[in-house]
Amino acid sequence: MVCEFGSTAKGEKASLYTLRNKGGIEIGVTDYGAALVKVLIPDKDGKVQDVVLGYDSAKAYEEGGVHFGATVGRVANRIGGACFELNGKIYALTANDNGNSLHGGCDYYNKRMWRAEEVTGQKVIFYLESPDGDQGYPGAVRISVTYELTDDNEIKLHYHAVSDADTLINLTNHSYFNLSGHASGPVLGQEVFIAADVFTRADAESVPTGEIVPVEGTPMDFRKYKAIGEAIGADYEALILGQGYDHNWVLKGSGLRLVAGMRSDKTGIVMEVLTDLPGMQFYTGNFLVSEQGKKGAVYSRRHGACFETQYFPDAVHKEHFEGPVIKAGASYDTVTIYRFRTEA
Q1: The pLDDT of residue 344 is above 90
Q2: CATH topology of domain 2-342
Q3: pTM above 0.85, yes or no
Q4: Is residue 74 a contact partner of residue 108, using CB atoms and an 8 Å limit?
Q5: Of 25, 53, 275, 344, which has the most beta carbons under 10 Å away?
Q6: What value, to the nearest 5°, has the Cα angle with vertex 217 and ends 216 and 220?
């Protein structure tokens, strides 16, 4: 089903695409920013919960600054110093985060209209043409993001891109999840696990230092489910600098595998994250401040949690980090899945 989703300041008309599966799950995605707008799931009592934070119109997404549901690129997360060298040439980026480049600078992919094609009841593909020099990056890139809602209760995101020159590509989804319902308040009581023995230490500007730190014996250890709020206020450098969890975990294994989970005892809703990427930024909405959301909701600090699968932040400056350099004509292909179930 397709319906109008308002217009942008430029007069561009946006649409909302509703996908449904046999399990009673419904999601909404929009061609403005290729964003995930809603995820409706019956809870353990049969009440339908919307478990992602968002807005009611394209205009609100255009005006919002916290990347709700966003498709983020050309390079997600941070590049230190807002510049990098590739093939002997220095490329300057927009410094929009303490002298660094965050989520592609200020001309965000999630502030653009994407072209929707191949729309079915359970799948839609969004396309974007990113020209040479866009956001400061080399190469004209053809990008597609596929949202598929499977009958296994999975939101499957397939990212594909091809550039006509060597470039950097690191796409992710920036949805904020609250499995007790998008308007239910802080997620601190909900539990999370992350399949990672180590994380990348970051400086005061959230740029990785290059050091890989074991989670053992620290508040960063989520190898077993524990409440988000259990240690978020601990006297620990990473949490002090990040004002909570906002870090890249080095995910165990390779290929498409289970890397994280989140669950709410209140609703019985469980989400599992699968990806083929090496890292994931777990972010607990530390900087949300009275954000006016959908259906009259007001989102504040730690009202949602993000699971941003990725290549490591600032990998282009760290030789021992797997980097997002894509060669001319080569395909960038990666899959991330958010899989849901409800437990009594």
Answers
A1: no
A2: Beta-galactosidase; Chain A, domain 5 (2.70.98)
A3: yes
A4: no
A5: 53
A6: 70
